[in-house]
């Protein structure tokens, strides 16, 4: 929209606002536009999901679907963007056209959101971001973010590897420890934080050597493919860092197919992220050594934010979820308590 048109439309909006204001409605800001929900009194939530690439993502989707039900007072629509950022941008524009009450975005990658989130802001639709983060200099473009501290997860993985090595009688400080990393979707905050956090803290172990890093795009299939190439290039890998459980499952398949062993009794130590139920099963089966938790149950957290916004209350801009680290030796005692 060109500058002149923008001024005219802003004047019209202002005039309309004054008229509507006289009728005592609307707050003007984007923290909440009051439920329109298509006139049925429901709060209309448009959720822009990354895809269906992993067990973690399916658990995240289920948490949102189980929370934003009609009996809970919501009209809920979700778009699966198949791990394509441009599909997410299109989905946001569709939700703006539909005039949803809230847009919830799980961004695939960090870059490129200012324009479309500016359009949502102009339309007066609050945006809540979950899971991964966006890169922006204008934090007025989103109302709140809830997710994980990915760099901390990377730090935790260094401590987890040291402990997993000790659990199998290997000193983490003696002898060269050769590591390969299966990275997540490049440019996603989960990949950036986990890669950077591990790289930064592994300096505490000068005997640890990162042989290679390559993206498996958070999928089991790609993770297996990359691990097969690593095994051909590096005959003496000691550790695999998989930036999610599904890539770890792929790596384990590749290791076994190559006639090698992994896990607490095996030659190759497997350190993973997410700690989904299948990771506990893998640890119990003796294939995986440790998984750094990344909690996907964002549905109730986002519902709490929306309820506060609807009540005109302030919400925290940034909220990190609590997470733990789980080791193979404890997996059997814990698996029944896991929600995802
Ligand atoms: C992390 C999330 C990542 C998971 C993967 O919060 O964005 O995306 O670690 C998922 O399993 O694909």
Describe this structure in words.
The chain has 340 residues and is of the alpha/beta class. The protein folds into two domains: 33-146 and 296-321, Rossmann fold (3-Layer(aba) Sandwich); 150-294, Response regulator (Rossmann fold). It is built from eleven helices and twelve strands. The strands form two sheets. It has a six-stranded parallel β-sheet with strand order 2-1-3-4-5-11, sandwiched between helices. A six-stranded mixed β-sheet has the order 7-6-8-9-10-12, sandwiched between helices. It starts with a helix and ends in a 6-residue tail after the last helix. Bound molecules: beta-D-galactofuranose. Beta-D-galactofuranose binds at residues 53-54, 56-57, 131-132, 148, 190, 218, 244, 273-274, 294.
Features of the shown structure:
single chain; binds beta-D-galactofuranose; alpha/beta; six-stranded parallel β-sheet; 11 helices; Rossmann fold
Quick summary:
The chain is an alpha/beta fold and 340 residues long.
List the helices and strands and how they pair.
Elements: H1 3-22, E1 43-49, H2 55-67, E2 74-80, H3 85-97, E3 102-105, H4 114-122, E4 127-130, E5 144-147, H5 150-167, E6 177-183, H6 189-201, E7 208-215, H7 220-233, E8 239-242, H8 245-257, E9 269-274, H9 277-284, E10 290-293, H10 299-310, E11 318-320, E12 325-327, H11 328-334
Parallel strand pairs: 1-2, 1-3, 3-4, 4-5, 5-11, 6-7, 6-8, 8-9, 9-10
Antiparallel strand pairs: 10-12
Helix pairs in contact: 2-10, 3-4, 5-6, 7-8, 9-11
């Amino acid at each position: 929209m060109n500058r002149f048109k923008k001024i005219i439309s802003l004047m019209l909006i202002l005039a309309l606002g004054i008229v509507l204001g006289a009728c005592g409605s609307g707050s003007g800001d984007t923290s909440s536009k009051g439920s329109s929900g298509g006139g049925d009194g429901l709060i209309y939530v448009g959720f822009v999901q990354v895809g269906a690439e992993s067990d973690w993502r399916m658990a995240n989707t289920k948490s949102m679907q189980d929370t934003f039900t009609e009996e809970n007072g919501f009209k809920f629509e979700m778009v699966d963007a198949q791990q394509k950022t441009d599909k997410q941008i299109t989905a946001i524009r569709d939700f703006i056209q539909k005039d949803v009450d809230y847009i919830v975005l799980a961004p695939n990658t960090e870059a490129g959101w200012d324009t479309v989130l500016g359009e949502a802001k102009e339309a007066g639709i609050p945006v809540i971001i979950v899971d991964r983060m966006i890169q922006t200099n204008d934090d007025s473009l989103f109302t709140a973010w809830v997710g994980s501290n990915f760099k901390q997860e990377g730090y935790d993985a260094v401590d987890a590897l040291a402990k997993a090595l000790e659990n199998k009688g290997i000193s983490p400080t003696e002898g060269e420890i050769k590591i390969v990393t299966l990275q997540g979707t490049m440019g996603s905050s989960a990949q950036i934080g986990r890669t950077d956090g591990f790289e930064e803290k592994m300096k505490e172990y000068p005997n640890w050597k990162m042989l290679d890093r390559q993206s498996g795009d958070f999928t089991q299939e790609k993770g297996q493919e990359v691990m097969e190439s690593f095994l051909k290039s590096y005959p003496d890998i000691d550790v695999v860092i998989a930036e999610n459980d599904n890539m770890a499952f792929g790596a384990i398949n590749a290791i076994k197919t190559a006639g090698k062993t992994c896990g607490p009794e095996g030659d190759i130590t497997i350190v993973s992220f997410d700690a989904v139920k299948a990771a506990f099963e893998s640890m119990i089966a003796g294939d995986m050594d440790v998984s750094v938790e990344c909690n996907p149950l964002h549905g109730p957290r986002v519902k709490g934010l929306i309820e506060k916004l609807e009540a005109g209350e302030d919400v925290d801009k940034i909220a990190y979820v609590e997470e733990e680290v789980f080791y193979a030796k404890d997996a059997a005692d814990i698996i029944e308590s896991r929600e995802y």
